């Protein structure tokens, strides 16, 4: 097996801000970057057409591409029908920004897809994602749902219910290993028609858990990235670990991606670390060892 995929890095993983994170991504040997675009300087509302052009040119001047933007708005995802109109609108604006910056992919969490397809939560999520799917499809673009909160089989059933593939998948094998205990290799094969972006991350599951305790659920606590990071570093249920130190079988995982013809980015995400640059450098080297 010889990987030909480009290597990306989540800029926020460095903890240095956007501009310094971009420089560091180039320095560690990445081909591209993924950037959060939900608040602060990267909020679409804070980027004029001129600022977008300048940022795109700056990224290109570093010899980098944008593999995707992250448009994860947290909270309950799209489970709350009363909050969905504003979230859907903002998600569209993030996709508009992505297109202006030269990528057609926005990754996101939509909330845990419930098993009960007759529930009001399922209906609310389906309605919001159908609108987003059609919007993205009209632009030849994708909102990519990150794997992990539910099994691959449940996610596929949900995606199959939408009328276009404008909502697809950002495949994260570690989330599956750490939270649901699902098999990433089988997940790749099951979701192969939908995978448009991937994260490269590793971890281990310490005990069985309710995904609601990690990702939140309407009527329970909302999803918080800070809370997830705290759980991943010192919680009782799972640990995020440097690549190769967890339970993701990367040889089998990369082979599965090759088998389905995936030629997109392998984007490194390191959410928990007191030495992110060192871990990310090693992650780049780890992926390069398969090339």
Helical element count? 11
Helix content: 40-55%
- Spatially, the strands of the biggest sheet line up as 1-2-3-4-5-6-7-10
Largest sheet: 8 strands, parallel, barrel
Radius of gyration: 18 Å
Average pLDDT, all residues: 95
The ordered H/E elements are: EHEHEHEHEHEHHEEHHEHEH
Number of strands: 10
Low-confidence stretches: none
Strand content: 15-25%
Instruction: Note the gap between the termini.
Output: 8 Å
Q: Which of globular, elongated, flat, extended, rod-shaped describes the shape?
A: globular
Helix/strand-derived class?
A: alpha/beta
Keywords: Isomerase
Protein name: Sugar phosphate isomerase/epimerase
Pfam family, one: AP_endonuc_2
GO molecular function, one term: isomerase activity
What is this entry, summarized?
This is Sugar phosphate isomerase/epimerase. This protein is α/β, with parallel strands linked by helices and 291 residues long. The protein contains eleven helices and ten strands.
Structure, explained:
Keywords: Isomerase. InterPro entries: IolE/XylAMocC-like, Xyl_isomerase-like_sf, Xyl_isomerase-like_TIM-brl. This is Sugar phosphate isomerase/epimerase. GO terms for molecular function: isomerase activity. Helix content is about 40%, strand content about 15%. The chain contains eleven helices and ten strands. The strands form two sheets. Strands 1-2-3-4-5-6-7-10 form an eight-stranded parallel beta barrel, surrounded by four helices. By secondary structure, the protein is of the alpha/beta class. Helix 3 (about 85-100) packs parallel to helix 4 and helix 7 (about 185-190) runs parallel beside helix 10 (about 250-260). About 50% of the residues are buried. Helix 2 links the parallel strand 2 and strand 3 (about 65-70).
